[in-house]
Description:
By secondary structure, this protein is mainly α.
Amino acid sequence: xxxxxxxxxxxxxxxxxxxxxxxxxxxxxxxxxxxxxxxxxxxxxxxxxxxxxxxxxxxxxxxxxxxxxxxxxxxxxxxxxxxxxxxxxxxxxxxxxxxxxxxxxxxxxxxxxxxxxxxxxxxxxxxxxxxxxxxxxxxxxxxxxxxxxxxxxxxxxxxxxxxxxxxxxxxxxxxxxxxxxxxxxxxxxxxxxxxxxxxxxxxxxxxx
Length: 208
């Protein structure tokens, strides 16, 4: 049976990833406030955060926004929204670099930079959730969405998935954790329970 755009896309993993980005920046902000931003655990947490965000945004820029743009050709308002998504990504990148440098140098401007990054990323995520996801629900098929998520899986690979999955659910409320894991294929849930979560905890991300 031919797929139609009336079929609903499951954005569970997208929302869960966004929540994980927000959570990590809260942890970074708390670490900075507590004077422990230069500890190995915080640095490891930050490195993983920047990696996950890079994978996420690169996949959107290369495999998602162009697909949506094709579907909304001739719709100026929707095209402007996609321009905004890409512009917001470009504003986040310099802040990531500035925070990275300030962390390395233990610079006094680190708290202000973390606040700026947190506000800028949160505004972007909210804009995407409020405006871009409904647009995608309207114009993309579940096959389109599977192609996008497949690109992320290819980029992460099995080794990356072993960090990504437990990272997303790290500290998540039980209902959110269950929703995310239930959206994963059964083998992923088994691997996460038996191997990945233990390996992730041993990395000590964000610990003192």
